[in-house]
Structures are given as C-alpha cells and as structure tokens.
UniProtKB/TrEMBL annotation:
The lineage of its organism: Eukaryota, Metazoa, Chordata, Craniata, Vertebrata. Keywords: Signal. It comes from Xenopus laevis. Residues 23-111 form the UPAR/Ly6 domain. Residues 1-22 form the signal peptide. The keyword Signal applies. This is UPAR/Ly6 domain-containing protein. It comes from the Eukaryota.
Length: 122
C-alpha cells in the first residue's frame, strides 16, 4: 500500500510541473491597462510585474516583464517641483500580473485527480 501511495505522489509531482523556464506576462503601457493587455514572454531573469507611477497625486499603471533585481525597489524623484514615485511589484507565475486572481492550472488539477485515483484503486 505504501508503494502505491509513493507512486501516486510521484505522478502528481511530475504532472504538476509547468513546461519551460520563462513566464508569460500581461503587458500594457501607462493608461491603457484597463482597455487591453497583450501576452509577452519574459526573459529568464525577469518576472511579471506591475509598476504604479504616481505623478504628484495622479496614479498610472504599467504591466510588463521586470528584471528580478528591480522588483519591489521603490524610487522617487522630483522634476520641476512635481514628485514622481515608482512602485514596482512582481510575481512569478504565468499571467500573475493581471487584476484577476489566478486559479489552479488545469494540468495541476488533472494531476491531483490522477494521484487520488491511483492512491484509491491501485
């Protein structure tokens, strides 16, 4: 019985891994993110990100791939008496930089069902 459970766990882990090493992220320019986004493939050292820029009191958002080393590094500068603040935030799953909460991947759900089936009937 213990061997069957081990096999079921192995198949669950095997099937739940995503293929590839780069992320798919939403991408849109400042001011257009509520209208439309495109999907973009990030580089191997990048994560999905959302950058909120405050120009004075006016916020604007951009979504794109962000170099991992720049994630969560807030910056602030003053130009002609107006303060510009940039607040990047990053995440590391496919299309995670959308406003919509992501659910379990279909492959992970299928892997869980296969693992349960194997544990019960094998």
């Amino acid at each position: 019985m213990q061997t069957k459970n081990l096999i079921a766990v192995f198949f669950f882990l095997l099937l739940s891994f995503e293929q590839g090493y780069t992320l798919q992220c939403h991408s849109c320019a400042y001011g257009t993110c509520k209208i439309a986004t495109i999907k973009k493939t990030c580089g191997i050292t990048e994560q999905c990100g959302t950058m909120t820029v405050h120009i004075g009191q006016l916020p604007s958002t951009r979504k794109d791939c962000i170099e991992s080393s720049n994630c969560f590094k807030n910056t602030s500068d003053t130009y002609a008496g107006v303060t510009v603040t940039v607040n990047p935030s990053c995440c590391s799953t496919d299309l995670c930089n959308s406003a919509v909460t992501q659910s379990l991947a279909v492959v992970t759900g299928i892997a869980a069902l296969v693992a349960l089936w194997l544990a019960k009937f094998c």
